[in-house]
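> run fold Peptidyl-prolyl cis-trans isomerase
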Amino acid sequence: MWKSLVLALTLVSSSVFAGPKVTFETNLGPFTVELNQEKAPISVANFMKYVDDGSYVGSQFHRVIPNFMAQGGGFDQEMNRLPTYAPITNEATNGLSNKTATIAMARTNDPNSATRQFYINLVDNNFLDYKQRPPGYAVFGEVTQGFNVIQNMAKKPTTAKQGMRDVPVEPIIITAVSVEK
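> ok
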């Protein structure tokens, strides 16, 4: 009985983020995110457009705040804004929480403005969830390998650059992206 219970719990926990696995190579090392197509289909489909078109390669983590999050995907190495597809509908009501190591869509004050930028939570940030702060920020996956790379981003010095704060002094660049389905 215990063996079947452990097996059932293992299957449940391993399927929480059952979706594509995307590995990012950066100049600080690799990390892998597993996406949750079931609870965040719009966000996952949107994110995968940028993965599939290759446009995350050469982009940087342009906003890194220790004990908060690391944000990337929207700017090239020279801090030029990258082209986007149309904004998507906010899926923050999907029940996923902004917990440590989760990935979520960045957006402006308009809840339905997310395009290509994403962030990875360095700590539990449940104040970003729909339940705490409607309309919330939509989580759509989780870092399953290499979270230490994200943590190391937060140890790098930052500066203000082109009107933005918390920009790493030495750019943290996405050098390659691959998908395991």
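Residues 2-14 form the longest helix (13 residues).
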